[in-house]
Design a protein that fits this description.
Belongs to the ABC transporter superfamily. Its main location: membrane. The protein is α/β, with parallel strands linked by helices. It has a single domain, classed as 3-Layer(aba) Sandwich (Rossmann fold). The chain is 31% helix and 26% strand. The protein has nine helices and twelve strands. A six-stranded mixed beta sheet has the order 6-7-8-3-9-10, with helices on both faces. The protein has a four-stranded antiparallel beta sheet with strand order 2-1-4-5. It has a two-stranded antiparallel sheet with strand order 11-12. Helix 4 packs antiparallel against helix 5. The chain is globular, with a radius of gyration of 19 Å.
Length: 271
Amino acid sequence: MQRPEHTGIGLSAQDVAIAYGRNPIVSGLDLAIPTGCFTALIGPNGSGKSTILRALGGLTAPNTGTILLDGHSIARLPTKEMARRVGLLAQGPAAPEGLTVTDLVRQGRYPHRPLFGRWSEQDAAACEEALALTDMAGLRDRPLDSLSGGQRQRAWIAMTLAQQTAILLLDEPTTFLDLAHQIEVMELITQLVATRGKTIVAVLHDLNQAARHADHMVLLKAGRIEASGTSAEVMTSANIQQVFAVASTIILDPLTGTPLCLPLPRRPPQS
């Protein structure tokens, strides 16, 4: 399927450094997110993936450097304006008990509504589209706490889609999901990029999952970029050894032709 042309919206980081107290997390980060593509941020725990995602979404302010949207610093954008342009779904979001899918998705319209504005036809249409895209329309009246893990994650993504932003940032959207639900979420992400021209950035732990689905990969270690580019450029034995200290062999996925990382045992098998 041919993807739509890029929208021209660009998200980037220039010489960004972020520290929590005296602990540096990210340093000297220069990162350009390709528009109309799915970018996966990968790396070991503590490499700064989630911190970078939060900075791109305006939730964490850099100590130095600048996050840019269309060439302008996001620090100068009002909160609602930022939320109309960039949607962020944090890891493990929580909702009040008894909240239904419809209630949750409607919250995604907050950035578009005046303080005392009435619910509009545009708001309703945006929510219906989000429910349809995530295949959640049939579950609209169900409480979130009655859904499976994959269904709940799709409901949260539907809320983010109701914001109608061109850019979506997802922090570990498949963590704690079983394999079938992981596949659901990853296929939804690729569908949104392919059919809607969304720019999506996701933090992922599964290297092979990232290589199979992402158009662009960014490999991080200790808050710095070790490699970026296509899966073939990033998923090399040398890069895996450098970042994860794991010996591996790389083969081609027989279904997709993308790189498949096979870690080698640290100790040779006993004869």
